[in-house]
Automatic annotation (TrEMBL):
<dbReference type="InterPro" id="IPR027417">
    <property type="entry name" value="P-loop_NTPase"/>
</dbReference>
<protein>
    <recommendedName>
        <fullName>ATP-binding cassette domain-containing protein</fullName>
    </recommendedName>
</protein>
Length: 354
């Protein structure tokens, strides 16, 4: 640990945030090596707490340091950036490819291979501002170095791994979702509503952004859509993923934003159903992505009809009539609307009659 009151010996730039790491001696030398791409002379704006870590357990200690630096940077940028659990690489022009996926989806392996061709920005966290600029997080990569101990991952510098350097500025250009083990079809386009739901699951503090779902939808538009890589081994698809940077963007589909305005709630209408307060919503042709609190739902068919119709409170009978006007008479229309309303109420999308 550094002496109390003294600035930390190691300061790294993570997502544009100067983060201090309070270590000294051999630990400082080791971490400088691991964080070689991120070292900065800036004064630390935040310092991570390493008090409970065992410095003698170097592998576990260094992995925990990386996690705490990442969390400190995410906390500092929450509410200002779209922060994704993703890796990223950029070409010489700064066109950035974001590779999104949960733990175990193969992000680090994919980025390690891609960064032999394109510049390494991060294998874990991608932070995007409103202009689509990507703020680098060139952290050490967690790599299994002992096959007999796959649970222990060493922290290796991108320099030690020979990964290419990115340009000084980078901007988001294409997005890929990793679907490992789901098939070997390669790159397939993902409909925007489904892509939004999957991306939301791999974000940090998204709910703190203004209009979070609309922010994700607009980002997808700017990147020409989203592709999923359905694969078993990434090596066989490396050329295809690199080539995605030059692929023609897909045309953005029609969609409409439905922001929540508490001033429009109005008074309850006896016997009528109404929308529950929501965080944000984006409507597509026949689907709706709805955020309630920090959870996200994808609605289709009757669910979309009901939610849109409840722009003003309506009775169940009125909703049945609306459905039959659009889709024709159905003997079970009343039951289907009733079941849908109960399900949506249970999930806090709508409110039962007062």
């Amino acid at each position: 640990m550094s002496n109390e009151g003294q600035p930390p010996e190691v300061v790294v730039e993570s997502l544009g945030v100067a983060v201090g790491i309070p270590v000294t001696g051999s630990a400082a030398d080791r971490l400088r090596r691991q964080w070689s791409r991120a070292l900065t002379d800036r004064e630390a704006s935040t310092v991570v707490d390493l008090e409970l870590l065992d410095p003698a357990a170097e592998v576990a200690h260094d992995y925990a340091v990386t996690s705490r630096v990442t969390m400190a940077a995410l906390d500092a940028t929450a509410g200002r950036r779209l922060n994704l659990h993703a890796g990223a690489v950029a070409d010489e022009d700064g066109r950035t490819l974001a590779v999104i996926g949960p733990s175990g989806s193969g992000k680090t392996t994919a980025i390690s291979l891609l960064a032999g061709r394109l510049g390494y920005l991060s294998d874990e966290t991608v932070s995007i501002d409103e202009t689509l600029e990507v703020h680098p997080h060139p952290k050490p990569l967690s790599v299994i170095t002992d096959p007999d101990a796959p649970y222990l991952k060493s922290s290796l510098s991108p320099d030690d791994l020979g990964l290419r350097r990115p340009p000084d500025r980078a901007h988001l250009h294409r997005i890929v979702l990793l679907h490992r083990g789901t098939g070997d079809e390669g790159l397939v386009p993902v409909p925007d509503p489904r892509a939004i739901v999957e991306i939301v699951e791999q974000t940090s503090s998204l709910v703190r952004l203004e209009h979070p779902i609309h922010r994700v939808a607009s980002t997808i538009d700017a990147c020409g859509g989203v592709w999923a890589l359905e694969y078993h081994e990434f090596t066989g698809w490396l050329e295809d993923v690199v080539g995605l940077l030059d692929r023609e963007p897909r045309t953005a589909p029609w969609h409409a934003h439905h922001p929540f305005d508490p001033g429009t709630a109005g008074d309850p209408v006896p016997g009528a159903w109404s929308r529950a307060p929501w965080t944000d919503a984006e409507e597509y042709d026949d689907e709706l992505v709805l955020m309630i609190g920090d959870g996200v739902h994808a609605l289709a068919g009757l669910g979309v009809l009901i939610w849109l119709a409840l722009e003003q409170p309506r009775t169940a009978d009125e909703l049945v009539a609306r459905a039959q006007t659009l889709w024709g008479d159905h003997p079970d229309a009343a039951d289907k609307v009733a079941d849908a309303l109960e399900l949506m109420a249970d999930q806090r999308m709508v409110q039962r009659p007062a």
